[in-house]
TrEMBL record:
Protein name: WYL domain-containing protein
UniProt source species: Actinocatenispora comari
Domain WCX: 247-312
Domain of life: Bacteria
Residues passing through the membrane, by range: none
Residue intervals of the WYL domain: 149-213
Pfam family, one: WYL
Amino acid sequence: MSRSRTERLVNLVICLLSTRRFLTAAQIAATVPGYGHDPADAREHEAFQRKFERDKADLRELGVPLETGTDSVFDTEPGYRIGRRDYALPEVRLAPDEAAAVGLAARLWRHAGLAQAASSGLRKLRAAGVEVDPQATLGVEPVVSAEPAFEPLTRAVRERRAVRFDYRTPAADEPATRRLQPWGVVSLRGRWYVVGHDEDRRATRCFRLSRFAGPVRLVGEPDAFRPPEQVDLIDYVAHSFAEPAATRTATVRLRAGAGNGIRRQAHAVDGDVVRLRYSDVESLASRLVGYGADVVVLDPPELRAAVIDRLRPIASRAGTASPSEVSS
């Protein structure tokens, strides 16, 4: 299943869970990203109907209790909703490593732009006078920030559009502008990379997202290139970015009973204070931020500052205490 179709199905589920009313196909088309079309255009409307029928079949095949009905005897068109009682999961108990994997997947889901689309869809429902249950939005607002380059790069990969960006390297004093046909965005050892065809070097290259300086600009038309088949992006990144020796040490304090992933990676543990060996400040800071208030950096100062810089916009959006207050 394509990424765009998966996103559309997720947003459809959120839309139908967010209200107890039956929503007509027209209301769904005006609300869920991916269904937008001109109802007066017979060809476009027919394409929407085929797409919607496929998506309904997919949801039912996945076990989603999609109900059809009306809210009133005066309604002339049937609508759709999801039966919450049948949709709710029983209590699920996860081992610590399973819970960590689910948390990572949830953060990635929010990072990839689904949160903004889902929130936009719910606002459209409210504007149309449909009562929305605020407890049924599945936490679609972002909590932890990803690399700013992630969303535009994944969009460029989906649309097969070239990108232009400024990129920093350890050997250069100033960022250099690069042009790339992106084939995919992958994660390795806690860092995000984009792999593709470098238009200036005329060769395959990969770039670490944390080294991007400034925005990613999409250029040219969609479907401008076709990624090669049988290319292992992870393997290419692994060979291009050999892991440097971890020669530096960080000291962090963990909340009691939390941060099990960090505890396993530590080379020394003294109660809830652990010491970690690392090579790159930015990479370790990004990893620690994912644990939120469960982690406080004690040393070194540059790592503490890097974590606070990442937490500050999150705290600002949430309206909570500043990261410097939380980390003190």
